């Protein structure tokens, strides 16, 4: 009987993971296609960027509400809604006759994708006992890391040979197939629960997380002094503070911030935030260095990053099993030491750094990250009560979005400011060596000559800051203890029974 249940559980997880894989793949798949879309729809770079920014914003707004949705609905119903929305958005995207329609399609895609990730993580934690969760999360890590990592390479190849709508039409049939499999194969013994969502909490969450995500993701392009950027950040921060205060007062909050009273979960969040910020240095800065400075094609840029993605994919299940055996502390310390050292080597890029050297460095760095991300997250979730698992998974997904946006904005800003400073210094140095006063044309020529070198120095400075961020995560890793799920107190059991008695279930 147990063997049958186990097979059924793995079958359900396989369906959920394929759905999550295509959802995550679509997140990075469109980035390399943006120049082609700009040309086809005759839109500016700042406008086309909304295909990525809008997708991320919808994710950031939707994810906090998934804890409520997971508690209210069965996994089957929720997954069918999520994959259904994603499939509809994908079909509309492929057939989009104009840019606004394409943008709406991306947002519909994102609304489905946002539900899938926390749902999958929650199913993993409720299906597997604590001693097997590392292996299960390792498989989840394979999906979570491998899918977005191969996106740029796959996209580069497709764009080189086909038109950009193929990116949508390639994924759409898979999404439909997953929907059909889920409809017939997914069964959930849990029943829907009649609980009401607090509308004000949804609004505050959207304002808080949406404002912060928009502010930080726009800061890299527009600059911190842009009124739209600092207005979004201020409104987002105020919205988030009010949202947290409201959640702390509610008996049944939409997103329960009480998960942070458990030290190991709080520590796992702190490490995840710093690691995410450090990780985005390579994701944001490498394409600028490879394509803009070195003139390497998008496809070759993607191929350079492919071995690292494959290593992460292979390592995720292995680190999951190692976590079950040794815990998260040893893996996190070793992994973060590798991340710190490899990131430091990235802070010494030149105009002649070999392609093979960059590939090896990037692969080693990804190997280090694969040893940290899933084990730390699993250890944190293991340390909170089972009833808080939906809130813990939603919180993890939310902080990944926010910390990624903060990390990207911070590092691009550092690179831009540093580049400007280096250009001034290099021009001043070149002018000081001239015997006669340079003309305006000569000054412009000198400036154009030093821009590439100054940009590399700016990228190096950003990587150096990333080293400092990774060192913070490395120090925090020494405080990790194996997460043990706390038992419910007598008072909590009584409260849970009262809540259960009030809830009316429906089939």
From TrEMBL:
UniProt keyword annotation of Disulfide bond present: no
Topological type in the membrane: Multi-pass membrane protein
UniProt cross-references to InterPro entries, sorted A to Z: EmrB-like, MFS, MFS_dom, MFS_trans_sf
TM ranges: 12-34, 54-71, 78-97, 103-125, 137-159, 165-186, 193-216, 228-245, 265-290, 302-323, 330-347, 359-377, 398-416, 462-480
Subcellular localization, as worded in the UniProt entry: Cell membrane
Keyword Transferase attached: no
Keywords in alphabetical order: Cell membrane, Membrane, Transmembrane, Transmembrane helix, Transport
Residue ranges occupied by any Major facilitator superfamily (MFS) profile domain in the UniProt entry: 12-485
Superkingdom of the organism of origin: Bacteria
PANTHER family: MAJOR FACILITATOR SUPERFAMILY MULTIDRUG TRANSPORTER MFSC (PTHR42718:SF9)
Family membership noted in the UniProt record: Belongs to the major facilitator superfamily. EmrB family.
Protein name stated in the entry: Multidrug resistance protein Stp
Organism: Paenibacillus pseudetheri
């Amino acid at each position: 009987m147990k063997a049958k249940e186990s097979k059924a559980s793995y079958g359900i997880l396989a369906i959920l993971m394929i759905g999550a894989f295509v959802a995550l793949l679509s997140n990075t798949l469109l980035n390399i296609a943006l120049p082609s879309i700009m040309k086809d729809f005759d839109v500016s770079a700042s406008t086309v960027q909304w295909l990525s920014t809008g997708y991320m914003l919808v994710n950031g707004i939707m994810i906090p509400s998934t804890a409520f949705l997971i508690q209210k609905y069965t996994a089957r119903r929720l997954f069918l809604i999520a994959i259904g929305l994603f499939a509809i958005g994908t079909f509309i995207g492929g057939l989009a006759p104009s840019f606004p329609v394409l943008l709406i399609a991306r947002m519909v895609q994102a609304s489905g994708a946002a539900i899938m990730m926390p749902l999958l993580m929650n199913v993993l934690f409720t299906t597997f006992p604590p001693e097997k969760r590392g292996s299960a999360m390792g498989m989840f890590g394979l999906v979570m890391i491998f899918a977005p990592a191969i996106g740029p390479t796959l996209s580069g190849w497709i764009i080189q040979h086909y038109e950009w709508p193929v990116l949508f039409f390639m994924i759409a049939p898979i999404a439909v197939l997953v929907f059909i499999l889920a409809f017939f194969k997914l069964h959930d013994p849990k029943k829907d629960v009649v609980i009401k969502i607090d509308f004000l909490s949804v609004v505050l969450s959207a304002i808080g997380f949406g404002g912060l995500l928009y502010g930080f993701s726009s800061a890299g392009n527009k600059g911190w002094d842009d009124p739209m950027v600092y207005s979004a950040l201020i409104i987002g921060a105020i919205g988030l503070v009010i949202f947290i205060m409201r959640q702390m007062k509610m008996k049944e909050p939409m997103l329960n911030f009480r998960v942070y009273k458990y030290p190991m979960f709080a520590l796992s969040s702190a490490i995840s935030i710093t690691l995410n910020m450090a990780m985005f240095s390579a994701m944001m800065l490498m394409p600028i260095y490879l394509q803009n400075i070195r003139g390497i094609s998008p496809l070759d840029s993607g191929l350079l990053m492919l071995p690292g993605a494959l290593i992460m994919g292979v390592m995720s299940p292995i680190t999951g099993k190692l976590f079950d055996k040794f815990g998260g502390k040893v893996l996190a310390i070793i992994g973060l030491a590798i991340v710190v050292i490899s990131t430091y080597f990235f802070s010494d890029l030149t105009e002649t750094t070999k392609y093979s050297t960059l590939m090896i460095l990037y692969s080693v760095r990804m190997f280090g990250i694969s040893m940290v991300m899933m084990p730390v997250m699993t250890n944190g979730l293991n340390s909170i009560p089972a009833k808080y698992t939906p809130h813990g998974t939603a919180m993890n997904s939310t902080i990944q979005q926010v910390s990624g946006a903060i990390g990207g904005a911070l590092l691009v800003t550092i690179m831009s400011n540093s580049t400007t400073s280096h250009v001034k210094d290099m021009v001043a140095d070149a002018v000081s060596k001239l015997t006669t006063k340079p003309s305006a044309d000569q000054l412009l020529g000198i400036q154009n000559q030093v821009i590439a070198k100054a940009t590399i120095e700016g990228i190096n400075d950003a990587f150096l800051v990333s080293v400092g961020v990774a060192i913070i995560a490395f120090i925090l890793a020494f405080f990790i203890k194996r997460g043990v799920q706390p038992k419910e107190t007598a008072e909590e059991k009584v409260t849970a029974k009262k809540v259960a008695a009030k809830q009316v279930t429906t089939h």
